[in-house]
């Protein structure tokens, strides 16, 4: 820094020393601040030309003799009231005037340009009114008392803006050429008919298919307009210029482009109308199944508690800590994630965004680290000043590479962090629909690698529209607006009883269950692995008839316990007694050393499917050999939770000697994604994929007399014949049905 200043000196004396003090030093940047003293000069002498000549002389001298120096003028507002002319000190002469400027004279000026006047809290709010409206030409802060509640902003629009609505807080109901006309009512009601713009983006056949289905269902959704963005939108024009300037923050999976297109679509919407953004998802490829208008009705009815009348994001059950530490889903951005420093990086980002400040609670970072994660697959925005403030911040911050590139889900994670940054000032609320989790789990949508923290249930707005309909039919609340900052993460919202115990956080999770939900592998566990996520036993009569022999067992990730739905009846099936009245047991007891011994033999897990008590059969076959035509069928859903694909051709084989009753004629079938139909072996199952295997073995005959029999199976690598994955066992007990 090179200080070059003279007290009480304006541009006139500074122009005489600029050569010695500035040009000789060849600075990169010159900041000229002579506004206060030039102002005193003008108040005393009214020598406008002299001040301008001196300022121009400084600029010309620097540009001629030091062309590499950039010049910045610091300007200030000049008071022109009579009282100011008596004052001689700069601090007094330049303070905000206490004399209110009459707007009547300004209104009488025959400019003919559509405009309105709105109350604002500061200059940034004034600028926002223009930035958020594509009909705006400029916005100017008018002189006033200098206190926030008295500031006014004049917004000028293009000719086409005449008669278009103005935002809440405006003194006119619309852009007007005559500001002396009718003033706006204190509160704005809903427009009729309600106007909605849908914004989507798609690149690639799968995404374009979903975008087309959304477009074809506009009538069903009662949406009037669709702005379908695609790759060509960013090829040319203003959007192309923006994309090229910000190429560094536009990634293969997300980035600045989504907040940008939402912000531009928001600017296109008229004040008071609605914008809906929706992902053209590869996960839920469908259009709207019903009207969005009931949801907008619901938001309008919640205006008092949710003034933005928006749904900025939907709350998920897992915490931000889980979002940042999970290794199940790869990084969306270009920066490799640093899991060891995830909490520190998160904390630094929250300070940079202003969510944590010196005046925040002492444990601000730790507190937000344990708050619920937000998902942004779709959002709803009423065009008002609160929504504009949030969307502008999201679009602006997403252009900062040092912020967005380090986030787990880039723009979506930024949306979540900004929600916590602005929730108090803008009174934002998060949408929380706990009933959707229970409904999706009942349909086995919790058996994947991510299990019960999967957000796919909220990927499409249809699920929320359906729950809103169910709320009306059952008269039981399904949709909640919550403040996740104050919510107790251990119990969920007091206002939503269904959410009790749903939040997935480290403090309440068993360590092994927490690590499993993060997809953190056990270093000693085999890379070629499998885990049972569901199982059930059936009894087959050999004629194609199957009846449940046990209850249903599930072991989803992201949950603190395994679940078992008992069989509906404890009555014997024929003369067969159901002994499997509880969930399967951990089969590691077969290995004297527990898990270490289990891993050493190539297994990743062990499960005892159950115990069956059956009478000795008295059926004699044609060759005089006793046999039982009935079979026990074990249907097991396996997850490849290892680090490598399964070897193609994996099939059933005896394990640990096969026990004393592992029939060679046991049937085996395997079905999974990427394999057509049920096969006698499994294909190269990829990491994170599911396979359903069916193992059928006949009930024991005379060999059951007086002894417990056990069958033991596993999957085997067809080349090495070595077992891998899960060790299964099933026990048969002799006796008669009780």
From TrEMBL:
Residues 182-192 have a biased composition (Polar residues). Residues 162-192 are annotated as: Disordered. SUPFAM superfamilies: SGNH hydrolase. This is Uncharacterized protein.
């Amino acid at each position: 820094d090179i200080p070059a200043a003279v007290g009480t000196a304006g541009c006139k004396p500074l122009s005489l020393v600029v050569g010695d003090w500035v040009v000789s030093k060849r600075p990169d940047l010159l900041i000229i601040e002579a506004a206060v003293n030039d102002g005193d000069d003008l108040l005393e002498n009214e020598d406008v030309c002299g001040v301008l000549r001196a300022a121009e002389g400084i600029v010309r001298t620097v540009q001629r003799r030091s062309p590499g120096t950039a010049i910045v003028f610091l300007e200030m507002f000049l008071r022109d009231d009579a009282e100011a002319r008596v004052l001689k000190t700069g601090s007094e002469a330049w303070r905000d005037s206490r004399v209110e400027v009459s707007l009547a004279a300004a209104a009488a000026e025959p400019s003919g340009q559509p405009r309105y006047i709105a109350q604002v809290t500061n200059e940034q709010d004034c600028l926002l009114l223009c930035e958020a409206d594509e009909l705006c030409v400029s916005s100017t802060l008018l002189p006033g008392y200098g206190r926030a509640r008295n500031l006014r902003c004049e917004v000028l629009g293009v000719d086409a803006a005449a008669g278009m609505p103005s935002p809440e807080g405006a003194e006119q109901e619309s852009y007007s050429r005559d500001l002396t006309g009718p003033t706006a009512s204190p509160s704005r009601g809903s427009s009729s008919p309600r106007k909605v713009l849908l914004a989507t983006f798609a690149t690639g056949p799968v995404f374009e298919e979903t975008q087309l289905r959304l477009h074809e269902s506009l009538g069903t959704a009662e949406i009037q307009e669709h702005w379908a963005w695609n790759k060509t939108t960013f090829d040319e024009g203003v959007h192309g210029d923006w994309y090229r300037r910000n190429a560094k923050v536009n990634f293969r999976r997300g980035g600045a482009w989504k907040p940008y297109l939402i912000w531009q679509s928001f600017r296109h919407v008229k004040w008071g109308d609605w914008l809906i953004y929706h992902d053209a998802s590869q996960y839920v490829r469908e259009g709207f199944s019903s009207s969005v208008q009931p949801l907008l009705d619901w938001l309008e009815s919640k205006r008092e508690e949710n003034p933005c009348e928006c749904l900025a994001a939907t709350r998920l059950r897992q915490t931000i800590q889980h979002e940042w530490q999970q290794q199940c889903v790869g990084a969306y951005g270009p920066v490799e994630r640093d899991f060891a420093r995830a909490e520190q990086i998160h904390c630094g980002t929250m300070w940079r965004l202003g969510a944590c400040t010196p005046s925040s609670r002492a444990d601000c970072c730790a507190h937000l680290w344990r708050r619920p994660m937000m998902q942004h697959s779709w959002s709803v925005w009423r065009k008002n000043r609160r929504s504009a403030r949030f969307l502008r911040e999201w679009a602006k911050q997403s252009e900062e590479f040092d912020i967005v590139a380090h986030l787990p889900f880039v723009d979506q994670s930024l949306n979540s962090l900004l929600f916590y940054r602005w929730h108090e000032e803008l009174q934002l609320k998060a949408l929380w629909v706990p009933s959707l989790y229970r409904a999706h789990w009942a349909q086995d949508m919790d058996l994947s690698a991510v299990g019960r923290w999967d957000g796919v249930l909220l990927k499409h707005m249809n699920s929320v529209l359906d729950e809103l309909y169910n709320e009306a039919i059952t008269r039981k609340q399904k949709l909640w607006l919550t403040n996740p900052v104050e919510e107790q993460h251990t119990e969920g919202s007091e206002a939503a009883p269904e959410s009790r115990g749903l939040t997935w956080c480290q403090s309440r999770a068993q360590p092994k269950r927490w690590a499993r939900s993060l997809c953190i592998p056990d270093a000693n566990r085999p890379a070629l692995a499998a885990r049972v996520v569901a199982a059930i036993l059936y009894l087959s009569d050999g004629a194609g008839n199957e009846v449940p022999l046990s209850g249903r067992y599930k072991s989803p990730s992201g949950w603190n316990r395994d679940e078992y739905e008992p069989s509906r009846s404890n009555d014997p099936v024929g003369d067969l007694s159901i002994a499997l009245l509880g969930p399967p047991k951990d089969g590691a007891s077969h290995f004297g050393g527990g898990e270490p011994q289990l891993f050493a033999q190539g297994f990743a897990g062990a499960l005892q499917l159950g115990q069956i008590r059956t009478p000795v059969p008295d059926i004699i076959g044609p060759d005089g050999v006793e046999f039982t035509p009935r079979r026990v069928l074990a249907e097991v859903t396996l997850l490849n939770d290892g680090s490598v694909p399964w070897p193609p051709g994996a099939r059933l084989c005896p394990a640990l000697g096969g026990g004393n009753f592992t029939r060679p004629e046991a049937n085996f079938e395997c079905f999974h994604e990427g394999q057509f139909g049920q096969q006698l072996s499994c294909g190269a199952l990829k990491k994170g994929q599911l396979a359903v295997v069916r193992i059928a073995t006949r009930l024991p005959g005379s060999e059951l007399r007086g002894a417990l029999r056990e069958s033991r199976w596993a999957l085997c690598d067809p080349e090495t014949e070595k077992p891998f994955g899960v060790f299964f066992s099933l026990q048969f007990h002799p006796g008669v049905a009780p």
